[in-house]
Write a structure and sequence with these properties.
Elements (H helix, E strand, L loop, with lengths): L1 H32 L4 H23 L6 H31 L6 H43 L28 H12 L5 H8 L3 H15 L11 H5 L1
Helix pairs in contact: 1-2, 1-3, 1-4, 2-3, 2-4, 3-4, 5-6, 5-7, 6-7
Length: 234
Amino acid sequence: MNNDLHRLKRLGWAVRAVFALGIAASLAGNVLHADDNPISQAISAWSPLSLLLAVELISRIPARRGATSFARLAATAVIAGIAAWVSYWHMAGVAAHYGESGASPYLLPFSVDGLIVVASVSLVEIGGRIRALTESAAVTVAAPVANPVPVPVPRPVAAPVATKPPVRRVKPRPASAGKVAKAATKMPGASVAEIAAKAGVSESTARRYLPAAAASVASPSTPVPAETPSLAAA
């Protein structure tokens, strides 16, 4: 489609050059046949220029089908008829003045006017085809935008979280147990009250930690001393 559009645009410029050549020939014949003053030359040059402008307008500006389009084409045809009639007699007079004789002065203007008619019709046709291809390309490009296809978005994968091994908390040994063990070591055979007084704890605390203290200070070969009657009494 892009190649066809590019080719039609290049062909349109070539046809426009041919059309401009025909208008230039008609314009030259009209100016040469007019009186030698700017006003007469401007009046004689107006009909080819009006045809040039009319053809450019209808070939470049699109129009809907209907009465408006028909009126525009009809007006262009009227302008072309007037330009052809005026240019015909001007060019015939110039051809006769510059040596053409017989039927040549009356046939030569038909070649110029015929070239202008063919080029103007070709310009209108090429302009219509270019507009049709441009609109088709615009619809083709806009169709995916109107109904976009959803693209699945991959979900991010979370990185594995390193888990720390559980820390085992060691329950610290109470300070009172150490005091009781130390007092029991220094005072073997003492009563619970004496050991509690030495360790600075209550008798119940000393009684609770005293067996453990005695076991920690006793050697394998030495038996643990039994409680004295005073301990039992306490």
